[in-house]
Specification:
- By secondary structure, the protein is α/β, with parallel strands linked by helices.
- The chain has one domain: Rossmann fold (3-Layer(aba) Sandwich).
- It has 13 helices and eight strands.
- Strands 1-2-4-3-5-6-7-8 form an eight-stranded mixed beta sheet, with helices on both faces.
- Helix 2 packs parallel to helix 13, helix 3 crosses helix 4 and helix 6 packs across helix 10.
- The longest helix has 23 residues.
Length: 321
């Protein structure tokens, strides 16, 4: 073999070895200051086994309608803190942490269906309805929680009476391309994944500024609600598993199938899901109305809870028999 070709092969082999082994040489220190989910629970917290997963739930009110609240990515049921008590005046309110978020279980190994997959998210919603003996519910979903609400409606239309979609992430996001998903799932990237997800902690204030129209008005107790999920053991690894399981929803190809009543709510200063997306969605759904809340960002139910509740109360009064 020509010496130059031989040298080239050695360089190539060395490069491949570095790529294969190098990531494992990067230290991933264990998280400090984390606790089992049950140790972080509130007095009104419940932990319910649904489809083999330990799910953190809060339930208020009684009677119908029944509202099931679905938080967005990197959030938790605490996102609904400001509106849960007002909602209980209208009926029953069930809020829960999706697997991998909040105080619900953060499985790292499993048999059968991936607990972070879109299908599991849908099955969990229906499992909660079954657990509480609810025949039909109004699903209220923020951001990625809005896409879960829509997927559950497509899969089980007989169980969902209406949708309230709050700054829903329908037209963008939903997972990396297939080739990138395969790369992220390699042992090397699984090793490094927790280091990547831990960047959320260093960017926490920046992300809040993106989500809120005026983050200076963020109540101190809300800051603690944001922090609590990042005190749960293995949250960083489960975030990575959730990322690996994510994929495009394809919802925009099925919008004509949503014939049930829908209220689309958006903040007028949403810098995560542009207001144009929510306006477009309300226009493309067969039976939707739109509410734009002024001086609010991606989480208007947190930032403008009173105006949010006025919109929800008006919508419910029109659809309830």
């Amino acid at each position: 073999m020509h010496p130059l070709k031989q040298k080239g092969l050695f360089v190539l082999a060395g490069g491949l070895a570095v790529m294969a082994i190098g990531p494992f040489l990067v230290p991933v220190p264990p998280l400090k200051g984390t606790f089992p989910p049950h140790e972080l629970a509130d007095d009104d917290s419940e932990f319910i086994e649904i489809n083999g997963l330990d799910i953190h739930v809060k339930k208020l009110g009684q009677g119908e309608p029944v509202f099931v609240l679905l938080h967005g990515f990197a959030a938790s049921l605490y996102s609904w803190h400001a509106v849960m008590k007002p909602l209980r005046q209208l009926g029953t309110v069930i809020a829960f942490d999706r697997p991998g978020f909040g105080l619900s279980e953060h499985p790292l190994t499993w048999q059968g269906q991936n607990p972070y997959s879109p299908e599991t998210q849908v099955d969990l919603v229906i499992g909660l309805l079954d657990h509480f003996g609810v025949k039909q519910a109004i699903l209220v979903g923020n951001s990625a929680g809005g896409t879960v609400a829509m997927q559950a409606t497509l899969a089980h239309p007989e169980r969902i009476s209406a949708l309230i979609l709050v700054d829903p992430a329908v037209y963008r996001g939903g997972g990396a391309p297939g080739w990138l998903q395969h790369l992220l799932a390699t042992p090397q990237m699984r090793h490094l994944g927790p280091l990547i997800t831990r960047q959320i902690l260093s960017r926490g204030r920046e992300l809040i500024k993106l989500a809120w129209h005026n983050p200076d008005l963020l109540p101190p107790e809300m800051v603690e609600y944001y922090r609590k999920p990042f005190q749960v053991e293995n949250w960083d690894k489960s975030f990575w598993e959730f990322t690996l399981a994510s994929r495009p929803t394809g919802l925009k190809e099925h919008l004509d199938e949503f014939t049930l009543p829908v209220l689309v709510i958006t903040g007028d200063d949403d810098r995560i899901v542009p207001i144009s997306d929510s306006i477009r969605l309300a226009g493309e759904l067969p039976n939707a109305s739109l509410k734009v809340i002024e001086n609010a960002g991606h989480v208007p139910h947190e930032e403008q809870p009173q105006v949010f509740m006025e919109a929800v109360t008006s919508f419910v009064s029109k659809i309830q028999p």
